[in-house]
Design a protein that fits this description.
By secondary structure, the protein is α+β, with helices and mostly antiparallel strands. It is built from 8 helices and 4 strands. A hairpin with a 7-residue loop joins strand 3 and strand 4. 36% of the residues are buried. The mean pLDDT is 96. The protein binds glutathione (GSH). This is Thiol:disulfide oxidoreductase.
Length: 210
């Protein structure tokens, strides 16, 4: 694990930013939180657009001793970068086990989180309520099907904690009240076990009240 590097995580209390923060916490990387005020449009300021021209959070900045800082946008890229910096903590060393982690990670990213984001944009006035309802239904069905991933193994992708657990947790938390928990005993056990991890719990809260 690298300890001489300084990281800064720009973000706000959103799922994408929280997943990046949890990855840094679980990787044990030292970082400073830079809160970006989305409500007041700080992400559209010239200073922020100089960092990320598309004006989105999260952004990870890694200072370099010789040269300009490394700037990484995209929450999933940040998570994978953190995983590489801390071998064995977020991705298993064994390539077969790692393939299972990627399979589950991308299941949550593409089949659950992305569908949930698409549904979000169809909400509200001027939205498309029927389309939104269809997408939410589809997203919940996919998430509920994850019960099978944790019926014989403690984590979403096998015997060890991984980025698949991070991707699965925040979206599960965001729809917690809509899930039929009585039919999901394995998912419930997994959910409680992940929430109890100290580093995970820290990452969940880093953007609160900033
Ligand atoms: N695919 C990007 C999405 C980033 C994204 O959409 N961030 C949102 C917050 S979760 C944002 O910055 N929204 C502000 C805006 O679009 O104006 C990622 O995973 O990092």
């Amino acid at each position: 694990m690298e300890m001489n590097t300084s990281y800064q995580l720009y973000g706000a209390p959103t799922g994408n930013c929280i997943r990046a923060a949890i990855a840094l916490e679980e990787a044990g990387l030292p970082y400073t939180v830079r809160a970006v005020d989305l409500v007041n449009g700080e992400h559209r300021s010239a200073a922020y657009l100089a960092l990320n021209p598309v004006g989105k959070v999260p952004v990870l900045v890694e200072d370099q001793q010789n040269g300009p800082p490394v700037v990484i946008t995209q929450s999933n890229a940040i998570m994978l970068y953190a995983a590489e910096k801390a071998p064995g903590r977020l991705l298993p060393d064994d390539s077969l086990a790692r393939a299972v982690v990627y399979e589950r990670f991308f299941f949550f990213v593409t089949d659950v989180i992305a569908v949930s984001h698409a549904a979000f944009f169809l909400r509200g006035s001027g939205g498309v309520p029927e389309g939104q309802a269809r997408l939410v239904e589809r997203m919940l069905a996919a998430l509920e099907s994850a019960e099978r991933f944790v019926d014989k193994e403690p984590y979403m992708a096998g015997k060890t904690f991984s980025i698949a657990d991070i991707a699965a947790f925040t979206i599960t938390q965001s729809v917690e009240s809509q899930l039929p928990w009585a039919q999901l005993p394995n998912l419930r056990r997994w959910y409680e076990q992940i929430a109890a991890r100290p580093a995970f719990a820290r990452g969940l809260k880093v953007f609160n009240a900033r």
